[in-house]
Amino acid sequence: MTTPLRKDAARNWQRIVSVARDLVDEGTPLQLNDVARRAGLGVGTVYRHFATPEALLETVAAPCLEALAAHGQQALTDADPWRSLTGFLFHTVEAQVTCAALPPVAAAATDAVPRTTELKKSLASVGATLLARARDAGVVRPDLAAADLVPLMCGIAHAVSVHGGTPADRGDTAHRYLAALLEGLRTTPPSA
User: What is the DSSP letter of 79?
Assistant: First the structure.
């Protein structure tokens, strides 16, 4: 159990995270000294809250990861294996192209914040379960492995970042690319 922050410390934490989110959204790498300057806080204050830029980046990405994990849990309750898998993948790729903090956090081999590790493991487990259900139902290619999902989603997110048009167009582009990919993954029903 963590102790609640004092009001001034909580305000500082919010200010740091808000500045970091703005920097990430504009594509600027996080440097704690720069965050402190832009937030109008002492460097020591920023370091007390976030020991590393990675910890700060993971904190910025946390709401997105939590929303994806919640959607994943909801997808597990859907009885239709194709719909639950594709719905989860659409939410995932949309999050990757709308939350600038998510791709680097998802791609990182190690995590600075234990909660990030927990959320990433949960998402991997949900993806593997949804894929196994779809494979068992015969609606996806049998050679598709759970380990293939992350690189495929990252590939789409990268393609959208390069060719996706304006930020307003990126969600639609990601959906179009994913729909094309999913058609390639889906098995064709046997001829009658």
Answer: S
